[in-house]
Design goal:
Length: 200
C-alpha cells in the first residue's frame, strides 16, 4: 500500500505556492523544511495571499478536492478597505457577479462574519500601506468553491477592495498557531474530514 504523507504550511506573503520559481522570487523550497521529493501542493494560494496550504503525495486527494461533486469549505480572514457593511455582507452571502476570464459568474452562497476586533494574526511583511484617511475592517468568509482570486473579486464587487487575505481553514484542517513559513505534518484522519464523502 502506498505511504501517503500530508503537510500543512503557513504560506507567507509573496511566496509562490510551488517549488520552482524565477529569479527574485520565493517559493516552497525556501522554507526551512525538507519535503519528501514526491510531495506537492494541493491547490494554491496567490503570491499576495497568505495562510494555509496543503501538500501531499496522495494524487487521489488532488482530484477529489477539485471535483465539484465534493464541495468543501474554505475559510479566510480578509482585511478590506473601508467599514464593511451589513448590506455588503448580505450580498456576498447570497452570491455576487464577478468577472472570470471575460465572463460574468454568479458566486455560490457564502458565509460572512464581520469582525468587531482585529484578529490575532502575525504581522504581514511588508505591512499593508496605511492611509490615515481610509479606515479598514476585517471579515471572515467561508466559501464552498474556489475560483481564481474569488475572495478579492467578491469584496471588490460589493465596493470593498481586499488589502490582506489569509486562508485559515480547509474543511476541518485549521492553520491554528502555525506561523508564516512553518510546516506541520498531519495525518490521514484530519484530511478525511474535509468533506463528508468517503475518500479513505
Amino acid at each position: 500500500m502506498p505511504h501517503y504523507q500530508y503537510f500543512i504550511v503557513h504560506k507567507p506573503y509573496l511566496m509562490l505556492s510551488q517549488f520552482t520559481f524565477g529569479e527574485g522570487q520565493s517559493g516552497l523550497s525556501n522554507l526551512n523544511f525538507k519535503f519528501p521529493p514526491d510531495v506537492y501542493p494541493v491547490g494554491r494560494l496567490d503570491a499576495d495571499s497568505e495562510g494555509l496550504l496543503l501538500l501531499t503525495n496522495d494524487k487521489r486527494l488532488y482530484s477529489f478536492l477539485f471535483d465539484e461533486k465534493n464541495p468543501h469549505p474554505r475559510t479566510y480572514l480578509v482585511q478590506v478597505e473601508g467599514v464593511f457593511s451589513e448590506q455588503a455582507k448580505e450580498k456576498i452571502e447570497k452570491g455576487v457577479l464577478i468577472n472570470l476570464k471575460g465572463h460574468k459568474y454568479l458566486t455560490k452562497p457564502a458565509k460572512v462574519e464581520i469582525l468587531n476586533e482585529e484578529p490575532n494574526v502575525p504581522p504581514r511583511v511588508p505591512p499593508i500601506r496605511f492611509r490615515k484617511s481610509i479606515p479598514t475592517s476585517w471579515i471572515k468568509i467561508t466559501l464552498w468553491e474556489g475560483k481564481n482570486r474569488q475572495v478579492r473579486r467578491m469584496t471588490a464587487a460589493v465596493g470593498y477592495p481586499t488589502l490582506r487575505l489569509i486562508r485559515i481553514a480547509i474543511g476541518n484542517i485549521h492553520l491554528g498557531a502555525l506561523q508564516p513559513g512553518e510546516v506541520k505534518a498531519i495525518d490521514a484522519s484530519q484530511v478525511y474530514g474535509i468533506t463528508k464523502s468517503n475518500l479513505f
